[in-house]
UniProtKB/TrEMBL annotation:
One of its GO terms (molecular function) is catalytic activity. The lineage of its organism: Bacteria, Pseudomonadati, Pseudomonadota, Betaproteobacteria, Burkholderiales. It comes from the Bacteria. This is Amidase. Residues 27-434 form the Amidase domain.
Length: 453
């Protein structure tokens, strides 16, 4: 692995320990590779070569003394552009708890990846209107809103990436780009500016790398009022070895709302379920828990929240947004009454109760990430219609509002090379369990295509 592009975190740290390569050499190789590759892909917001190489040199000195700060010391990582980092070109005030944990661990922050113009609504297009190309199939969308992280991960810019997942905005691009995306329980990974359903999400090429990231990200931080109490779990060392024989798995392939589930996606989920059943798991199909008014209320709250965001922007900032966003956010928000907003929150509470009831008696839920395959890159949503901008998040958004851990795992590739993923959902706080089942499925899945070059 002469240039170290595509190396996992464990391959890198093992090489550091043997003195086969230094963090500086790895960082320089990845900078050169990302700069060259990103001319076409457009996943990077900023690369910070000087600061990163300074951190890499410090890591190299620690490895020479056999005194790394953590098992991820010297491992390169990239962050979504709205995660605050010191001394970067587009930093916001303060430093995110996520960044504090990474720096404490000795990770090398190479830079920031772009995000789509607004959460999962505008897929694969950043604020400047530039397309963020899917490395598997440039004619198809890379998803949103953590499209830059998913694209950079699939392309091999760094082994570790952190996005933000609010309504599926890390899991959807992870599925479309064939990588692993993990949405933890709300509060498991503290954020500097927490809000309902918004979580920091590891995006990696493997479950092992995501578990290693979780080891350092889960430390509590008082700046996040949703931050969960400390836990003594060791994610990476416990992620292997789950026996399906002890599991009860529910399978949901039709939510009854939103776009019809693509037959290829349905077959993918069913194939994974069959393999779990053959390995001894108890597997049972279940009906949808999601009533129409529940998902409608999800959309009402998202529209109202986006409308407030737009009102707080300057005219110049609003002008930068695609009209798709402003049309969607403003289509009914001004006319909403307090009674309608309160009813929407009651419907969300009812949805959480329905989810709880649906999962009783089951350890995990297996389902699609998206009901549809990646659509044309030039379209901002499956129908390219602001009035129907969100139906494709019907399998992802409920878990943000219900605060459950959920993961997107690539299962196979279609005949045209397009990734086809599935979603694993667990009970609240069972983050390790979702990672363990994801790892079991990662081992079971068909042979994967070579990473796009």
């Amino acid at each position: 692995m002469a240039d170290w592009v595509g190396a996992s975190s464990e391959e890198l740290t093992a090489a550091y320990a043997r003195q086969d390569v230094s963090p500086v050499t790895v960082a320089e190789a990845l900078f050169d590779y990302a700069a060259r590759r990103d001319v076409a892909l457009g996943a990077v917001r900023v690369l910070s070569r000087e600061a990163a190489l300074e951190s890499a040199a410090a890591s190299e000195r620690r490895w020479r003394r056999h005194a790394p700060q953590s098992p991820l010391d010297g491992v390169p990582v990239m962050l979504r552009e709205d995660i605050a980092v010191p001394s970067y070109a587009n930093e916001v005030e303060g430093v995110s708890p996520v960044v504090a944990r990474l720096l404490e661990a000795g990770c090398i922050i190479l830079g920031k990846t772009v995000m789509a113009a607004h959460d999962s609504l505008v897929a694969g297009r950043c604020i400047e209107g530039r397309l963020v190309q899917n490395p598997w199939q440039p004619a198809l969308t890379s998803g949103g809103s953590s499209c830059g992280a998913a694209v950079a991960c699939a392309a091999g810019y760094a082994p570790l990436h952190i996005g933000i997942d609010r309504i599926g905005s890390a899991r959807l691009p992870a599925a479309f780009c064939g990588v692993f995306g993990f949405k933890p329980t709300q509060g498991r990974v503290p954020l500097g500016k927490p809000s309902t359903g918004r979580v920091a999400a590891p995006i990696t090429r493997s479950v092992h790398d995501a578990a290693a990231l979780m080891n350092i990200l889960v430390r509590p931080d008082d700046r996040d009022f949703t931050s969960l109490p400390p836990e003594s779990l060791e994610y990476r060392m416990r992620v292997d070895g789950l026996s399906p024989k002890s599991l009860s798995v529910a399978v949901l392939t039709d939510m009854g709302l939103g776009p019809a589930v693509d037959p290829v996606i349905r077959q993918t989920v069913q194939e994974a379920a069959r393999l779990l059943q053959m390995a001894g798991a108890s597997v049972e199909m279940i009906d949808s828990f999601l009533a129409p008014e529940m998902f409608e209320s999800v959309q009402i709250l998202l529209e109202a929240d986006a409308h407030l965001d737009l009102q707080a922007m300057s005219e110049q900032e609003r002008m930068r947004l695609p009209s798709f966003v402003t049309d969607w956010a403003g289509q009914r928000a001004d006319a909403l009454t307090g009674q309608q907003i309160m009813q929407a929150w009651r419907d969300i509470t009812a949805m959480r109760a329905a989810i709880n009831e649906a999962m009783m008696g089951y350890d995990y839920l297996l389902m699609p990430v998206s009901p549809v395959m990646p659509w044309a890159a030039t379209s901002l949503s499956p129908g390219n219609d602001p009035a129907g901008g969100l139906p494709h998040v019907v399998f992802t958004a409920p878990w943000n509002f219900a605060e459950h851990p959920a993961a997107s795992l690539n299962w196979r590739h279609g005949a045209d090379g397009v990734p086809i993923g599935l979603q694993v959902v667990g009970h609240r706080f069972d983050d390790l369990g979702v990672l363990r089942l994801s790892r079991t499925l990662e081992i079971m899945r068909p042979e994967q295509a070579a990473w796009p070059q």
